[in-house]
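Please think about what follows:
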Amino acid sequence: MHGDRATSIGLALVCAALLVTEIALTRVLSVVMWYHFAFLALSIALFGLAAGALAVHLLPGVFRAARLFTQTWLAALALAVLAPGAFLGLADNPAYRHLTSAFRPESFGTADLLALALLYGAGALPFLAGGLVGALLFRHRGHAAGRLYFADLIGAGVGCLLAVPALDRAGGPGALLFAGALAAAGAFAFARAEPERGTRRSARTWIAGAFAVGLAAATVVQATAPFLHVRFARGRELTGIRYEKWNAYSRVTVRDFGEPDSLVVQIDAASNTYIGRWDGDPSSVRHLTRDLIAAPYVLLSRPRVLVIGPGGGIDLLVARAAGAASVVGVEVNPAIVAAMEGPFAAFSGHAYAQPGVRIETDEARSYIRRSGEHYDLIQAGYVDTYAATAAGAFSLTENTLYTVDAYADHLDHLTAHGIVAMQRYFEEPPQQSARLVVLALAALSRRGVARPGDHVVVLRKAERASVLVRLAPFTEADIAALEAWAAPSGIELVAAPGRAGHGVYAEFLATPDWRAVVGAQALDLSPVGDDRPFFFYVVKPEHFWKGLAAMTGERMHSRAVVLLVALLGLALVLCALLVVVPLLAPGGRRAASGGGAVAVTYFFAIGLGFMLVEVGLLQRTMLYLGHPALALSVVLSTLLVAAGLGARTTQDAALSAAALRTRITWILAAVVVVAFAWPPLFRLLLGLPRGGRIAVAIVALAPVGFLLGQALPLALRRLAAGRPELAPWAWSVNGGASVLGSVLAMAIAINNGYTATLLAGAAAYALAWWLAPRTSPVALASS
């Protein structure tokens, strides 16, 4: 195998392994901790990569050119061991137990920060090993930065494509074993790239090959007869599991919980839906028509129903008991559908296969927007998941089911007297159910409804609430019928047209200026849209940066925000260390002289900009494609492969500052198009079949990725031509900026939306444009 080709193949395999590891850790963290730890996986990955590059910069005597292939072989082999080892470290780690079982957001202190640092360190080790590979190659092969960056991004793109089937077939632990096999294959390639033949090269080749084969075999065994399991989640042992299935965006289990006639379906050991034992006799489920979820059926006769997230099938049984003419159940998670149509079909009375019931495995928003049908009832009962998508889960549960745009889509697909019914929790102070009312009022106002409060009814039983919304106003007869039905079942009419109502709900419905009522609340209950789909986030944006000493809102989501702020602080410290530590090291001042520090700042700007733009690109495409795993696979693989192709074009490009600035100018133009032109374009083309939408997404993403891939390698080539010793420092600062960008993107998105996130990315690239001439501070200073 030719040395240059073997080197590129080795780098591509290591990068593929790193992407699979990152995505698999996202899944594992979302299961054993909380969903909001999932965006920690991306931050951990980037931190490890940056640390590896910093080590190469600070220890030039250790990482010498003569030992390049020995050290890349060792680092790749270390990654092969550490990737599956990360499962053992993170699935039973005292740090996560401290953060998830005994956590009080109002007292996040030193112990919590130390636990977070321990968690960071345990997860970062595989990426530290992978970061050494990239930093070593760019340090000693900087003249080939375009070719190497091409291999880096192509490998990452292929890794993203491979991660989805690996998770589907082997689960989170198996995907990490698979990542180890890829890394061992990379070590094999580096052994073959060694120019000196001999016993040592042969031994390294055999060792790496044995690791690759052994880990691949372990992956197959894990997929067919699993031997690695999650034993703990959030500080408690998982017991009674009858069924377990992983995929790219969840781990679904069905387990006993002490009730003989019920099983609980858990998504990532957090979100629950229940399967009730049913004998198939319709008369035995008539009692369900007295439940809160059955309220809309009081006003409907033989309705055509769409159920969002049927889960364990209770909503389907309610529809059946209430005499629905037809039911379409849209379930996004194929693992739940497989459980309900397979091993638990008989237990549930074949709820998914009842006459008139049709199950669609799809994302509900996307399905409804493409549908030409109109329904008498669109029902969504407690549909959410604390699972994180494998994209790195930039989520404090962003959920596009609960936005003004979602309500608008639902209303567009109702019959004249059809109802949208959503159930959420009834809390004090008002949060989820109150915000549902606000979303409905905003959607109705958008349609030009003069008195939107006349179109909303709120009912409550204990801690649960149901919000009914209709295009036609609710009449006195409608309200009287609901009252007569509700009273015997202990269900309270909280707010309705023509009734005094209770609390803020009554104010929302009765006050013409409902927006003023929203603004007067202590929590942020403002209507959220698809650009800022954080329904559960109730911290007012102006309060976000004020320390969050006394958090409000759900305890779980408070923890998420506190963690985000802590991560933001850690990321800022990390970035400062990546700049300051090299300056304090021997020869640091000399490295920074002659414009070296300014040159490195360019790499900080593009690292920050790339991550901010990537988050915006993912969100823009997610709703259009519909399926979370599909969006992950299409977006990240297309973006990375296209970026790799863009990087390859810079290998023989002119090294002038003008050439670099031209490429950044095109990036800025592309970001503006993504921010403002993509949303209306995607809405226009939403009716295409799935294959057509995938093609549109690829065509839209590829040019952007192609441009994004050029700013780093061309600047690295310029740096290598003038100050090659700065390349590892620049690489580490770029990685550190990406750590900051991954957390900062979340902070901007939850408070200001994804358009603002994209524009922040554009601002970072604008800074890079200004700094571009300084990327070769000595040899090309006159360019």
Summary: The chain has 26 helices and 14 strands. Residues 388-397, 547-556, 778-783 have pLDDT under 50 and may be disordered.
